[in-house]
Amino acid sequence: MSSSQRIGVFDSGVGGLTVVKALLARLPSESLVYLGDTARVPYGTKSAEVVTRYSLLNANFLLQHDLKALVVACNTASAACLPALQAALPVPVVGVIEPGARAAVAATRSRRVGVIGTPGTLRSEAYQRALLAADPAIQVVARACPLFVPLAEEGWTDGDDEVVVAVARRYLGELGRGELDTLVLGCTHYPLLKDAIAQVMGPQVVLVDSAEATANAVAQLLSERDLLRTAEPVPPRFFVTDLPERFAAVGARFLGRSVEHAEQVDL
Q1: What dotted CATH number matches 98-210?
Q2: C-alpha dihedral over 266, 263, 14, 256, to 10 degrees?
Q3: Residues forming the active site
Q4: What is the pLDDT of residues 103-151, one digit of tens each?
Q5: CA 202 to chain centre
């Protein structure tokens, strides 16, 4: 492997672009290639066997682009098949769950940690297991927030929007009145709703963005292997399996800048 090779990132759709955004902020010189499996989204309603099959297809496509590392930006895929991907691929594979869990354990003082995510991710209990593996004394409270995903994709993310805040309060009101001091945003869509979530949870609760934690984990991995790229930055490349125009339009909200072009591929 060499430092000039790329970092591959895949997700079931556009949400993984929050991970790309965090990677670009943390590692601005790196060359990134992203695949959104928009033809098969969502993964959360599918079996672990099917998610594993799709994830291997995604990973093998990205390997054709000269990778030095692969990031599984999808929480469902990270929960369902990270070990299978790590065993099957010739490059290091990083998921979003363990970095988020480690960051939460480092941040908490009360050892009471909340996790919010999609029903599928929370049903897998992957975050709960990762938190307890990092600190067996952690008390975990999990809450599914399925409406956060369509709100983020529609661009309804303003912390001053009464509809957004009302949905956040409906999901998180009880958590905000509890004893937890740390909340893991366990879905790649949720960082877009950070302002509304913070407003409901209050200033005493630290919000842990799994995307940022994952970017830090990737930076540490590349540094340890002497694979950090130092050349001039190059624009990321984007591939999707369906609806490239919609991906580009919606993806700009997640990336924080325009998605100039997304190429459709058939896997």
Answers
A1: 3.40.50.1860
A2: 170
A3: 74, 187
A4: 999 999 999 999 999 888 888 899 999 999 999 999 999 999 999 998 9
A5: 23
